Amino acid sequence: MNLRRLGREKLLLGGTIVCLALFGLDRLLLTPVLAAWATRAEEIRRLRLANSQGADTIAQESAWLRWRDETKAKLLPAVPGDAESALLSRVDTWARSSGFTVSSLRPRWKEGAAQARLLELQVAGTGSPGAVTGFLYQLETSPIALAVEQLELVPRNPDGNELALDLRLSGLCPAATGKARRAP
After folding, report:
1. Does residue 140 fall inside a structural domain?
2. Average pLDDT value for residue range 138-146
3. What average pLDDT does the structure give for the chain?
4. 99: alpha, beta or left, given left = phi > 0 and alpha = psi -120 to 50?
5. How far apart are CA 123 and CA 169, in angstroms?
6. Is 70 a domain residue?
7. Does 184 map to a domain?
8. H and E: helices and strands count for the chain
9. Which of 150, 143, 183 is nearest to 169 (CA)?
10. What is the residue-wise DSSP string for 132-184?
């Protein structure tokens, strides 16, 4: 009976040693390897997503470049004197073609972001309702990047066939490059 007991003790001892070895193997090797695997799988998933988004951005590159070129073409010139001249000549052309009489033009520069500046132009004048609407229509349909900041329209006589227009508009200019002089 003693021999049976010794065999059973050896079997239990061997089983215990195997269980402890498997537990140690799990804690020291298997768990860290599985955790690293899960971390790497998450990193691979994140990189695939970033790669997919990058491919989408590259696919849109030509559309963005076309939009950038179209937008640059709508800006006023970068040199302050050229920008003022271009805007003033456009306003003069619109006024002449619509029959609007300009009584005052006051340009003013506003510094914006590092990439752009604003040229504000205060326009005051008079004209018939048709002349004023023609002037405003040409201003709004102009290919130049202009924004009407303020508009005041007042009748000059009781029957309303003469209107006074006070308008502030702004045009976007790229920042001057090189040694171009800055506007006052």
Report:
1. yes
2. 90
3. 86
4. left
5. 8
6. no
7. no
8. 5, 4
9. 150
10. HHHHHHHHHT-SS-EEEEEEEEEESSTTSSSEEEEEEEEEEEEPP-TTPPPP-
Terminal Cα-to-Cα distance of the chain (whole angstroms): 112
125, with CB counted inside 10 A (0-12, 13-18, 19+), is buried
Tokens describing residue 27: 């804690």
- Indicate which CATH number applies to the domain containing 95: 3.30.70.60
Question: What's the order of all strands across the beta sheet hosting 146-155?
Answer: 101-111, 116-127, 163-174, 146-155
Assess whether 79 and 168 both reside in one domain. Answer: yes
One domain for residues 36 and 100: no
pTM of the entire predicted model: 0.62
Please count the structural domains in the chain.
2
> What mean pLDDT comes out for the span 128-137?
94
- Model confidence band, residue 179 (pLDDT cutoffs 50, 70, 90): very low
As a whole number of angstroms, the distance between CA 52 and CA 174 comes to 34
| Residue 27 or 138, more confident | 138
pLDDT for the residue numbered 183: 45
